Amino acid sequence: MLLLRCCAALGLLVVGLFLADKRGLFFDLASLAFILGPVLAAFASVQFKKEGFLVTRGLLLQVSIVGILIGFVGMIQRVSDATSIGMATGVALLVVLYASIVVGVCHLFASNNEQQINFSPLPNRVLAVATWVLVTGFAMHGVAGIYAFVDASALAIFSALSLGICLPPQNVENYKAALAKYLPVSGLIGSLVGVIAVLFNASDPKAIGPAIAIALLVPIYCNFASVGLKLLYPTIVEQDSSPPASYLGFMLLFLFFVVYVLLLGA
After folding, report:
1. Residues 78-132: tens digit of each pLDDT
2. Which residue in 171, 51, 27 sits closest to 106, CA to CA?
3. SS3 label, residue 115
4. Sign of CA dihedral 133, 136, 139, 145
5. Distance of alpha carbon 27 from alpha carbon 23, whole angstroms
6. DSSP secondary structure of 221-254
7. What are phi and psi of 89, to 5 degrees?
8. Helices 251-265 & 82-109, crossing angle to 10 degrees?
9. Which of 259, 262, 161, 157 has its CA nearest to residue 203?
10. Average pLDDT in the 174-192 region?
11. Could you give the count of Cα atoms lying within 13 Å of 149 in the half-sphere of its Cβ?
């Protein structure tokens, strides 16, 4: 009965999206693949058992954050064409829409709080991580090329945040869970550093590019690493008792709309 209700709800949602825009702009195969790839990886990490719903629910919002940030990099690459910026931003937001729908479905099927995630064989978990890396790599290559997502300053800040999370003694024995839990929130530090640098250097076009790179890439690195750890060690999802922290990533929307306005005015 639950499956029937879920299918009916999804069917009505698809009809609603189609009626909202009959051109089919709410349906993007690349954005859908970016969400479904990690969903498949989440189920593979637990041998395709029902616990996959719990793993998916625990990491998919972070996946959407990575997707929207990759989309913003594409927006920056097309900043010279004002007409394409809106389309690039819309496609980036589709990833969040799809992730929200899938997370809702996972809430329905993972409503039994007695479910526990058990370790699956290492090959399954490695396959899950490899799937996540490939999906993200293809997305980056398709948007702007892999090298557009490599920046020494962003890597240095990411490394500093990672080391800082592991320094407290209480986190030494469980550093993997600590990294998976706190890296997404820590990534906001990099975003703030970049946005502040953009605001201070608004009159210097040459300084804006590197500042935007830091603002975008640090949270990409942080959420990418966090999702990878959750796929490699699915039990981390149960240990993360602060799901609202994931929603802090959507503060990035506000930050980058500020950047968006600055770019349009440049």
Report:
1. 665 555 555 566 667 788 888 888 888 877 776 655 556 766 788 889 999 999 9
2. 51
3. coil
4. negative
5. 9
6. HHHHHHHHHHHHSTTHHHH---THHHHGGGHHHH
7. -65, -40
8. 170
9. 262
10. 83
11. 24
